[in-house]
């Protein structure tokens, strides 16, 4: 019995179920570099480099174990360009008795996988992905009967189930949530920490050349590529984070600072999502640091919440609600995406900084994603599909299972509150409090009208006015709606007119230098 074991670019884990029961003598592992995966959205150049270089290294590590690997490169002249085409070709080469895969991270790919049995005419086993704390079935059981899902409730249940940061039935330290301690702005005199980055090796440099030649019109710079591409790199990044950054992770979790995109964040999501690290080993290493006494409770709880809470919850919502989840547009948002999302060329310094960091590093931390680029898209009423595509393109860690609920549900409220109790809408004062961006901006959050007025302020109030029917009864928005109720109609009309004038003046669509999606 020979089995063809197909491993995708975000399944680079030795523990991937595809490799369970591998027969070294009879089986072949298949890995394929295909144009379809690089172009179904025009991914950031660094994301393509990271995935392809990590795939090549992973294949080598399997070969070093004596495993037979059939690896198809992007520039193979016979490459058909798709998972399905390459699997068909490989099945003709190897004549396997069966194919084994692990469920993918995107609905689009699962739909293709489900056709493989018929197309290949041999058994195809799609195994559940066991690299998460919460299986799709367990999440479905937890969500049964609920009309909305809340991360906090999920997180408490899973803390109790796993025993992480628990003292018997109670949360360690007497509280489930230390978020209130985790909102310190970055002190002006504090230097950002030096972060561990990785110099590209020969394999990575060859992929960088390939990407520069084949995808010149994709978003993003290659010059600063510093991501790890091997399991050893990912473990080193985890170690560096646990020792040097985790102790301060909580305090400055929401802070933003010019020219310092990483601060004390883990920068581990590209490795977790590609499979170079598992959630359990990241949480276990963080807990070990906490037990060693170097990490305060607000930091470890804040970090565990991100992985055991948010990451698992987001994945659960994606698989429970897809494919219909992507189709909702609760706030009827229809504007095109401003061109500055691709170029970074805008006088709004917060957006300029967040987008420039993103171009340079294929990274921005959570608050930049949520409260700068996400907040603008929410307030401006950008059509969900357009801004969702942007998020899927620009980040090294972006795969639809994690990108979509974060954007559609958390940033845009396009699901009407299925996973958030209110939209994350904010004016300029929030960005001013949490960053140093406003100091270097052509606008000021303190100026309410005229050419220096921060556009976020009118956009914020105009958003609430426009969406009053959908949002004014939300108890968590009672305060701003009370403020609005005290304003006369002429004042409100003026705000909406100024906001519309500002938005109507923004060019939309891809710049001429970029490749639109295939
Ligand atoms: P840290 O802040 O140090 O957090 C530690 C880890 O927790 C991360 O590595 C990540 O695995 C996990 N995590 C934290 N928050 C979330 C979350 N909301 N959802 C899922 N995992 C989380 N994350 C992605 O991995 N891919 C995406 O495509 C993605 N798109 C996002 C889009 C928007 C609009 C928003 C608001 C958030 C998005 N996130 C996404 C979540 C989060 O911003 C990133 O996981 C985080 O910035 C990654 O950097 P880090 O490793 O330094 O994270
Ligand atoms: C993101 C990506 C890219 C750019 N290229 C490949 C590839 O050539 N081969 C591959 O197996 N995977 C690639 N990936 C990751 C896939 O897009 C990812 O595995 C699917 O979206 C399923 O989650
Ligand atoms: Fe952003 Fe407004 Fe601050 Fe400028 S003034 S950086 S636009 S929040």
From TrEMBL:
<dbReference type="InterPro" id="IPR014729">
    <property type="entry name" value="Rossmann-like_a/b/a_fold"/>
</dbReference>
<dbReference type="InterPro" id="IPR052551">
    <property type="entry name" value="UV-DNA_repair_photolyase"/>
</dbReference>
<dbReference type="GO" id="GO:0016829">
    <property type="term" value="F:lyase activity"/>
</dbReference>
<protein>
    <submittedName>
        <fullName>Deoxyribodipyrimidine photolyase-related protein</fullName>
    </submittedName>
</protein>
<dbReference type="InterPro" id="IPR007357">
    <property type="entry name" value="PhrB-like"/>
</dbReference>
<dbReference type="InterPro" id="IPR036134">
    <property type="entry name" value="Crypto/Photolyase_FAD-like_sf"/>
</dbReference>
<dbReference type="Pfam" id="PF04244">
    <property type="entry name" value="DPRP"/>
</dbReference>
<keyword id="KW-0456">Lyase</keyword>
